[in-house]
């Protein structure tokens, strides 16, 4: 179905630029033709295509080609080693591998040489056009990565379309092995927008891409945005140095600190945050620029979902969730169709605020503490660029609150730590006080999200 | 003042200051807890964490329960 989508746009707007990457720019019709050539050359016995390469127009064409040829597609994290790639292929089930890299580890792996398509076509177009699947490995920021399976039909049904979308040029800020990367790709496609893929993920590479391609729309995590506005300040850049008019946040809770920084730095840009879970899809969005979501969302169907709160946890009902985990009968645990999200929330007057993940609660001497609230307060301290709050074992209370903080360039770490302690003492409860604080050079990130695995 | 003693006194003083109970001089033999300086469980957890951060270990971690500053100093002189 993803191939049908690109073919449809290509027939209406063939010359519209779809993808820009380091190698050049490609129209919808060019991307469509590339996918057709690739599909025709895929080995006829294969059921699955694994893609292991930097994000690029080739990668996107391969995804479309796999669908046309009736193969499932699975984009692998480029940060995996070759041996990890082979291990995953063994775990999930063998298929063919399209990769820009050679490795001794790949001996015995069937390769698809997508750069050499001069042989005779060996595969007819599939009769499974509406049934091929995309397999997405979860981030693994809170546990081991799982393989989530969607049909393209189900994913495409979640996308909102707008007539003005053809004027948008989106930055691909999420990697394509990530659910959010796939979301940005299909959103751009179904809205006949353009997609710009930066050469890399450093601030310089991203800003070079933003300026060269006049990117106006970016969807990224709050962690990405905190770093981005921090680097803007460090380099005396303002919104006038860019063309950004649409800002979307996702993947982590959009807290007041990051929203207010974005409002201040990009006052004319629209600000939307999206609630999505890999297993449940893109659920709903909030466009008023405030944290949490309106309580009115609990009273009616919103986006693809119905919402309710039960015992402090957010539940939702949606038809657009994943099919299953791969090689497993395990699907979503639902009671009467209601799915537990694992997110604790609090209803305050006309707004619902996120308190944090159930799995991240810290039990301090019997008192349950939510790291998210503490992080929000810590992030208000000038000089704190990023923070991770977690529970640390303590012989007296079982756990205490600990915080690892990244200090922004140009700030004195001792002064920041002192200001942070004063701020926390003024605002947080006794059991929420971070007892163990350490400045570190760089918090562990995966796919632009802070890793929150319990230590 | 002995270095270990000074560090422990500084840690205890900080905790008292944060409780809004700054002191100019602490009696090393006075109880840290409710019958003395008034440490509750969170203060004691903070004391344990601060000692671990400073010295790499703390008496609470190994099952001891020091009553006074002197007890803590004795732990580190073993």
Written overview of the protein:
The complex is a heterodimer of chains A (455) and B (78). Chain A has 455 residues and is of the alpha/beta class. Helices cover 27% and strands 29% of the residues of chain A. In chain A, the strands form six sheets. In chain A, strands 2-1-9-8-10-11-12-13 form an eight-stranded mixed beta sheet, sandwiched between helices. In chain A, strands 5-3-4-6-7-17 form a six-stranded mixed beta sheet, sandwiched between helices. The radius of gyration of chain A is 23 Å and the shape is globular. The mean pLDDT of chain A is 89. With 78 residues, chain B is an all-alpha fold. Chain B has three helices and no strands. In chain B, helix 1 packs antiparallel against helix 2 and helix 1 (3-18) packs across helix 3. The longest helix of chain B has 16 residues, at 3-18. The two termini of chain B are 18 Å apart. The relative contact order of chain B is 0.19. The model of chain B has no long low-confidence stretch (mean pLDDT 90). Chain A binds chain B through residues 364-365, 392, 394-397, 400, 421, 425, 430-431, 433, 435-436, and chain B through 18, 41-42, 44-46, 48-50, 53, 58, 60-61, 63.
Question: What labels describe this entry?
Answer:
heterodimer; A: 455 residues; 6-stranded mixed beta sheet; 29% strand; globular; B: 78 residues; mainly alpha; 3 helices; 0% strand
Radius of gyration of chain A: 23 Å
So how many helices of chain B? 3
Q: What's the count of strands of chain B? A: 0
> Percent of residues of chain A in beta strands?
25-35%
The radius of gyration over CA of chain B amounts to 11 Å
Find the biggest chain interface: A-B, 15 and 14 residues
pLDDT < 50 runs, ≥5 residues of chain B = none
Average pLDDT rating of chain A? 89
Question: Considering DSSP H and I runs of 4 or more, what fraction of the residues of chain A is helical?
Answer: 25-40%
H/E order of the elements of chain B?
A: HHH
């Amino acid at each position: 179905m993803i191939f049908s989508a690109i073919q449809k746009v290509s027939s209406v707007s063939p010359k519209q630029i779809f993808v820009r990457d380091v190698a050049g720019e490609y129209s919808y019709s060019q991307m469509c033709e590339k996918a057709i050539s690739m599909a025709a050359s895929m080995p006829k016995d294969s059921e699955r295509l694994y893609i292991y390469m930097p994000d690029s127009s080739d990668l996107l064409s391969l995804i479309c080609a796999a669908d046309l040829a009736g193969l499932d597609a699975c984009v692998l994290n480029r940060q995996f080693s070759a041996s990890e790639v082979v291990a995953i292929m063994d775990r999930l089930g063998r298929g063919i591998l399209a990769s820009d890299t050679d490795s001794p580890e790949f001996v015995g792996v069937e390769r698809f040489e997508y750069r050499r398509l001069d042989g005779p076509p060996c595969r007819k177009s599939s009769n499974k056009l509406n049934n091929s699947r995309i397999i997405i490995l979860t981030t693994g920021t809170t546990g081991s990565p799982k393989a989530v399976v969607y049909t393209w039909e189900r994913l495409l049904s979640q996308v909102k379309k707008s007539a003005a979308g053809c004027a948008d040029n989106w930055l691909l800020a999420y990697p394509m092995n990530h659910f959010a990367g796939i979301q940005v790709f299909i959103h751009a496609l179904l809205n006949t927008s353009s997609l710009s893929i930066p050469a890399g993920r450093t601030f310089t590479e991203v800003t070079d891409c933003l300026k060269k391609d006049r990117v106006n729309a970016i969807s990224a995590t709050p962690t990405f945005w905190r770093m981005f506005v921090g680097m803007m300040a460090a380099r005396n850049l303002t919104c006038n140095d860019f063309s950004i008019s649409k800002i979307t946040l996702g993947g982590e809770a959009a807290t007041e600190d990051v929203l207010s920084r974005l409002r201040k730095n990009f006052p004319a840009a629209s600000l939307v945050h999206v609630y999505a879970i890999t297993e449940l899809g893109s659920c709903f969005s909030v466009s008023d620029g405030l944290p949490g979501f309106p309580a009115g969302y609990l009273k009616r169907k919103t986006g693809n979902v119905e919402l309710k709160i039960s015992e402090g946890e957010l539940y939702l009902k949606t038809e657009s969730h994943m099919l299953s985990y791969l090689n497993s009968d395990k699907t979503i645990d639902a009671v009467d169709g209601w799915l537990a999200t694992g997110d604790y929330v609090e209803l305050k007057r006309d707004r619902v605020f996120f308190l944090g993940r159930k799995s991240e609660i810290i039990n301090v001497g019997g008192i349950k503490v939510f790291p998210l609230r503490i992080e929000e307060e810590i992030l208000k301290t000038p000089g704190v660029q990023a923070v991770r709050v977690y529970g640390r074992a303590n012989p007296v209370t079982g756990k205490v609150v600990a915080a690892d903080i990244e200090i922004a360039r140009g700030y004195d770490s001792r002064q920041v730590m002192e200001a942070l302690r004063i701020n926390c003492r003024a605002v947080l409860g006794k059991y929420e006080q971070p007892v163990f604080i350490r400045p570190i050079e760089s918090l562990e990130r995966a796919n632009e999200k802070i890793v929150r695995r319990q230590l | 003042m002995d270095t270990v003693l000074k560090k422990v006194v500084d840690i205890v003083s900080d905790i008292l200051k944060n409780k809004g109970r700054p002191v100019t001089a602490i009696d090393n033999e006075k109880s840290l807890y409710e019958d003395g300086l008034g440490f509750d469980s969170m203060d004691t957890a903070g004391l344990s964490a601060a000692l671990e951060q400073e010295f790499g270990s703390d008496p609470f971690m190994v099952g001891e329960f020091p009553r006074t500053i002197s007890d803590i100093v004795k732990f580190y002189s073993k």
